[in-house]
Amino acid sequence: MADFDTIIIGAGPGGYVAAIRAAQLGQKVAVVEGRETLGGTCLNVGCIPSKAMLHATHMLHETHENFEKMGLMGAQPTVDWAKMQAYKDDVVSGNTKGIEFLFKKNKVTWLKGWGSIPAPGQVKVGEETHSAKNIVIATGSEATTLPGVEIDEKTVVTSTGALTLANPPKSMVVIGAGVIGLEMGSVYARLGTQVTVVEYLDAITPGMDAEIAKTFQRILTKQGLKFVLGAAVQSVTKTDTGATVSYKLKKNDSEASLDAEIVLVATGRKPYTAGLGLEALGAEMGPRGTIKTDAHWQTNIPGLYAIGDAIAGPMLAHKAEDEGMAVAEVLAGKHGHVNYGVIPGVIYTTPEVANVGKTEEQLKEEGRAYKVGKFPFMGNARAKAVFQAEGFVKLIADKDTDRILGCHIIGPAAGDLIHEVCVAMEFGASAQDLALTCHAHPTWSEAVREAALACGDGAIHA
Ligand code: NAI
Asked: Which residues does residue 355 pair with via DSSP β-bridges, in sequence order?
């Protein structure tokens, strides 16, 4: 008899969700986690603390930008950095304790320590070896760095160090205009840091709808961020006052450098699978260090599964959560399923940026006939009332069938608005279905409906 039905390695959004669902489905479950707290990168040093910092600094920005316009007069708040950090830490500990509570409630055992898999069906934690009918690897990812660039998490930092700086720096160079670079860059720009983002490609946020990316860059530039695009970073050298970032411009091979107090390396993440013993087990690997799995998240070793950032697909907490639920269902003999065509992506800047489904660029490449309905937040009464009228909704539908193929939003609460489109897509809805759905007035959601109307006979307020 095995000690457990399922042992999950890693208590991030993939692992802890898999554990709770497996327990709900009647399994005896253990989760191996070596951190002091549950929740993985996302809760401890990623999504959640960064959202706290984004919220606090957005509030600060609002007082400077918009309070007087609304007749709110008086002294501007100043930043107590230690208190802001404490607020962020409280948010994190509230959430990690919440998962501990959920584990107890669902009778999930937490095996504290770092796990390895000495043989199929066995997980070693410290000196103890536990057996399980099935093992799920949910070990997530770690930040990548550039060749020769040494991270010390003090001067040259990843997102982890960027969340715990001793003070907001005077200047910061962010390497990489992806999600982490722009979210953390926004936090510090709002705190008065001079932020310069150096990006290898010729546009920010690679893979995003090009029109949205362009608008996003224009808005961020207005907020004070500087961009150097088409620049390959060659080296980062520490100096007495910070570090020097040297780069080569791709267009003419010219070299230049920037000095900054802090350098944030945000050039992507890679699967974290070190120490699991995968090589000795003979686990098949895919591209970029991912673990190869089949359609049911099973590796080539029977009973060994993998989910989340450690396997193929977007490195997103909610994609890992969905896979966690689905794999738990598979292990319980049910039909776990993830619709990889409908996974939203959100950047939590102000304004927020959100997307789901195909971009115009992808559809062009596929040679598909499509139509676009666009609506600017300038035409949305609610957005104008609260000084958040920048941006637009872009809905893309099949030219012939009107079926929704994708949606791209830059604007207020974009990260929430996107979900009505996700639901519509899950149900195979047409743009007209959305356009005929009554939307409360005055809400930001009306902009989504107007974009859907624009796919047909036209938006009303544009
Ligand atoms: P990313 O893949 O989003 O962006 C990395 C950027 O660095 C790219 O634009 C790339 O072209 C650039 N780059 C790479 N090498 C470079 C070089 N030598 N010089 C200049 N630029 C270079 O990676 P990021 O921002 O580090 O995020 C990592 C992962 O975490 C992503 O998968 C992201 O989706 C996820 N994440 C998601 C969040 C969200 O959903 N809101 C928040 C934070 C992270």
From this structure: 345, 408
d(C-alpha 251, C-alpha 421), whole Å: 39
Q: Ligand 1: list residues with CB < 6 Å.
A: 146, 175-181, 183, 198-201, 206, 232-233, 266-269, 315-316, 346-348
Q: Ligand 1: which of 142, 202, 216, 267 to mutate, judged by most atoms within 8 Å of the beta carbon? A: 267
In tens, the pLDDT along 215-224 reads 999 999 999 9
Question: If you average pLDDT over residues 83-90, what whole number do you get?
Answer: 98
Residue 298: its pLDDT value, please? 98
Ligand 1 pocket mutation, candidates 42, 246, 269, 410, criterion most atoms within 8 A of CB: 269
Burial of 202 (0-12, 13-18, 19+ CB in 10 A): exposed
CATH code for the domain defined by 156-267: 3.50.50.60
Are 336 and 420 in contact by the 8 Å Cβ rule? The answer is no
- 429: CA distance to ligand 1 center in Å? 32
Pick the CATH number of 342-454 from 3.30.390.30, 3.30.470.30, 3.40.605.10, 3.40.50.1010: 3.30.390.30
Distance 119 CA to ligand 1 centre (A): 35
For residue 110, the CA-to-ligand 1 centroid distance in Å is 32
β-bridge mates for residue 229, sequence order? none
Q: Which residue has the tokens 């279905």?
A: 433
Query: What pLDDT does residue 148 have?
Result: 87
CATH topology of domain 4-142+270-338: FAD/NAD(P)-binding domain (3.50.50)
Residue located nearest, by CA, to atom 41 of ligand 1: 347
The strand pair at 243-249 and 255-260 is best described as: antiparallel
Write out pLDDT tens, residues 142-170. 999 999 899 999 999 999 999 999 999 99
Each residue of 347-391: pLDDT tens digit?
A: 999 999 999 999 999 999 999 999 999 999 999 999 999 999 999
Compute the distance from residue 241 Cα to the ligand 1 centre, in Å.
Answer: 26
